[in-house]
Prior knowledge:
This protein is mainly beta. Among the domains are: about 1-135 and about 435-490, Baseplate protein-like domain - beta roll fold (Phage tail proteins - horseshoe like beta roll fold, Roll), CATH 2.30.300; about 135-180, no CATH class. Helices cover about 15% and strands about 40% of the residues. The chain contains eight helices and 30 strands. β7 and β8 (about 105-120) form a beta hairpin. The radius of gyration is 42 Å and the shape is elongated. The protein starts with a strand and ends with a strand.
Amino acid sequence: MINGLLINGAPLNAGSMGGGVGPGPGPGPDPVPVLPRDSILWDVRAMLAGEDVSELLTGTIRVEQERGAASLADCALLLDPGPIDPTWYTGKALSIHYLEWRDGAWVEYLLFDGWVIRPSFEPVDSVIALECSDRLQDAIEALSIAGVDALVGGNWSADLFEDPVGRSRWDYAQERLSSRAASLNRLPGGELVVTPWAATAPAFVYGDGVTLDRSLVWSPVDLDERVNVVEVDALWRYPKLRERRDNFTWQHPNLSGLTGIGGFCVWHVDTTELPDIAMVEEGTTGAGYGAIFNREWYRLPPTVTDGTNTGQFCDPQFVWINTYADLLLGGTWTGARRWVQAATETYALRVEAPASVDAAGEVIRRDRLAVDGSDQEAASAFAEPGWSGLAAGGSYESPGDWVVNLREQERWQAALVCAVAMARVQILEAHRRNRLAFDVPTSDAMGVTLQQTLRVEDQRCRAQAPVWLLTHELSIDAQTAITTITLGVSRGGGAVDDPIVVPAPPAVPSGPGRAGPRELVTQLGGRPDSPEFDETLPGFSGNYDVPFPGSAQYPRDFRVEAPAINEFYIDELELSTSATYRVAVPNDLLEFI
């Protein structure tokens, strides 16, 4: 058997299609012309669980093959007298073959092969009706996820659908098919195939007088179902990890602007309390800074410098004692803060068939895609204590913050491409719902498959479109064999088919500038002229080492105040952009003359 046809002395795939040699199931360079004939001699053979039950057939045998669906068959058997177990038939293999007498031999075609899924028994008449299916869905369920991927292809996104692990493989295959203008079927013999919807070169041409008189029926799609615009609101939410650094400088006012030993000598004339490194760092972290960088400390000199008592470097010389190395006369350092800002990018996507819109106005459908890329683990770890250095993968953004955008671009691209592809398929499918059906003798339909395109030039109609549905009805009682061929005709037009390119991320507008740190001052108590203590001032507060009796004493403290962060950099950042994708809808040949 080759392509469902047994070779019994007849030309390969010749069938009764007007006697010409044609391309069979697939499109070929030259279509086979189907010519009218005066008479046809046909028969039918049925095999049930490997046994020939053709003599038991009664009533009408019906075989239905449709794109994207399981092939079905109904037949009935008039059983011989004797004990009957109707449940035995469930799950038994059944094949139906169409036979035609050609050139002195029977040529046989496989119309259907599958399994009995529902036997219904009529005890009085001893007739069992068999409902059969090729179990397409079960065949898909038997595949692995990788097997479905290889078979169906298409686009898929974990943000549009659930994880396929543990779910129906059939549902997963349909999700992938929703992004392809194609149908999934099981051929007689068991092969699983995916067939694009687009018309190809015709395999057969049904000319004048071949179709049965007045059987041709045109059924256009209703206008409100002919979708030509799909608007998708796509929202992409993700965290922006922000780090801001502020530089601080503090110097004791009693240094006359000098540093090193010179500043120390001036300070020593009228000594005061001093902060230490721990106080400065505690004040900085207490202001909300999570890390400190670029530390440069102007330490109070120790007792001995270069082997000499430090006080001897001054004029006049003095004996100097300092055993604590972290007291400071000044310093510079950088405080760094980290926080997480939520960002939402909204993409207004429009997928349209302009020619269809121009012809009949907009028929709109809307969809929404929301993807939350918030990586809570990464966001939580971002500001954990102990971090150091700039986070990897970032860049500087206004107003000088180091920003890591956890956008997961590949994930977002997969979701967006899948959503646009699905919208495109929705438009193409809506414009291919037009149906042109006609009847022919079953002998004139042998060799026709769902994978082919046919051309019709009969009953004042000229059309060329893919086969969408085949319905064979073989009546044992009436001795008629009629096949209804239904074509899926696409009408719409358009010359531009835009590629699905993900739009560039929306631009982030420039926000307000940042405020710098307030100047760090020094407040010293213990003198009559000491100003009133102001606890709101950032910097160092302390006292002269020899306070005047009765003078106010200040707390020894070091305070740092972090500049306020504008809400533009804290509140959720909402960005938006738009894109339009044009779809060229095929215009299959269709003329009524």
